[in-house]
Amino acid sequence: MTPRVDSERWTEGEPDLAAINDLVVGTVQSPRTRRSWLVAIALAGLGVLALALAVFGVFWWYVGIWGVDTPVYWGIAITNFVWWVGIAHAGTLISAILLLAEQPWRRSINRFAEAMTLFAIACAGMFPLLHLGRPEFFYWLLPYPNTYGYWPQFLSPLVWDFFAVATYGTVSLVFWYVGLVPDLATMRDRSTGLRARVYGVFALGWRGSARHWERHQTAYLLLAGLATTLVVSVHTIVSFDFAIAQLPGWHTTVFPPYFVAGAIFSGFAMVLTLLIPVRAWLGLRALVTARHLDYCARLMLTAGLVVAYGYAAELFFGWYSGDPHERDLLASHLHGRSAPLFWLIIGLNVVLPQSLWWRAARRSTVWLFVLSLAINLGMWLERWLIVISSLEHGFLPTTGGAYWPTFWDWLTLAGTLGFFVFFMLLFLRFVPAIAMSELRELVAERRRRGA
Fold first, then answer.
1. In whole angstroms, how far apart are CA 91 and each of 73, 110, 172, 279, 405?
2. Which residues have CB under 8 Å from 35's CB, separation 6+?
3. How many folded domains does the chain comprise?
4. How many whole angstroms separate alpha carbon 293 and alpha carbon 286?
5. What whole-number distance in Å separates Cα of residue 244 and Cα of residue 234?
6. Which residues form the domain of 281?
7. Total Cβ atoms within 10 A of residue 404
8. How far apart are CA 236 and CA 85, in angstroms?
9. 288: helix, coil or strand?
10. Considering the domain boundaries, does residue 204 fall inside one?
11. Whole-angstrom Cα distance, residue 204 to residue 193?
């Protein structure tokens, strides 16, 4: 059923089909932004080189160059892994779940969020492989026939992560590509030379016939249903890395929903962090309006409230359990060694997002951008607290320790950030950042109602 929504409220003015095509295609073909794009991608390229250097260091000297040691065997690498997987969730949520819920406001931001998902999941997938200790043997995680008779240990969370991330990445890529096919055909018809031939190959012979649209919509909905289950399952599996362990602060049943809500929270924050400057840079304010940002902020606020409940549940059950080790960790968070970090996280992830109850805050691009940066930082620090703090507090005094990251830890993090931005810039330059075909549906709906 077509949702009964006034399409005029989702765009500024009344753009027709040609105006939508001109505006979106112009962001790809116009030379106006070429110079600034070259500067930005050159800077991001430095980050890619930093990542290459960090990966080379791990392959050459192995994980001993990181700060991990007894008892903290997981450091920034796993912190980054959980953080990047969380960021990757917002794209699937916007595209799949809101599509099934028939929410038309997703149409202006779903393509951008889907691309963010792909590059974030690529960053996330690096860390478990690098953390293996012998990353050149990563293929041992696959159940392939071999003469040694080795098989993966399916009771290991590392194997769960491998299959979860691989499945999520594959489905997200196919889902993104299927939605992109009609727009690639538009780019093919509006380009010349080599670029037109490249777009034509990836458009798969799309001509916009009724049969093409019928099969496209069927495949899109089926993939949306499949991707929806992955939104919940993938980060639930990631939470099992911790929840099945017996360490203080980890062994809790609240982690699966808590991790999923945190993923949506940080994912929407990253969407706003990227979308706000990009809509200004490419001149897309007519298609990505303040109302779109408002709705993203509302969902971010909702996820933030669930995250705040997760914090409260952790504190309560840590105290209520009566376990001396849990209470020792709780005391460290409230007034001990990790207290400054814990209260900073509360301020960034709980206190500041409460401003989104006010419409003026949700409509302010400056405040939303600042807030999204704060939430991204707060969620990364939260993953640091979860991963490292419990490992620093063992069951015996002799199992306690302190973790300090090295230069190579920070270089790897900076490299993945550069890698992420680099491929986002490539996406913005060569692929329509907004789903033209879906926005044209809004115009068609408006015309039918007007008729």
1. 31, 7, 9, 17, 30
2. none
3. 1
4. 13
5. 16
6. 45-421
7. 9
8. 11
9. coil
10. yes
11. 17
90-122 pLDDT, tens digit each = 788 778 888 888 888 888 888 888 899 999 999
3 band by pLDDT with thresholds 50, 70 and 90 = very low
Residue 199 in any domain: the answer is yes
Residue 339 lies in a domain: yes
Please provide the size of the chain in residues: 451
Amino acid symbol at 372: S
**148: how many CB neighbours lie within 10 A of its CB?**
6
Q: Which of 197-201, 324-328, 407-411 has the lowest mean pLDDT?
A: 324-328
Phi/psi of residue 69, each to 5°? -165, 170
Residue 394 resides in a domain:
yes
Phi/psi of residue 184, each to 5°?
A: -65, -35
Contact 293, 368 (CB under 8 A): yes
Residue 448's pLDDT band (cuts 50, 70, 90): low
Cα–Cα distance measured from residue 363 to residue 375, given in angstroms and rounded to the nearest whole number: 17
Tell me: the pLDDT tens digits for 226-235?
Answer: 888 888 888 8
pTM here? 0.89
Is the distance from CB of 82 to CB of 383 less than 8 angstroms? yes
Rounded to whole angstroms, the Cα distance separating 418 from 44 reads: 5
**Residue 263 and residue 217: Cα distance in Å, rounded?**
28
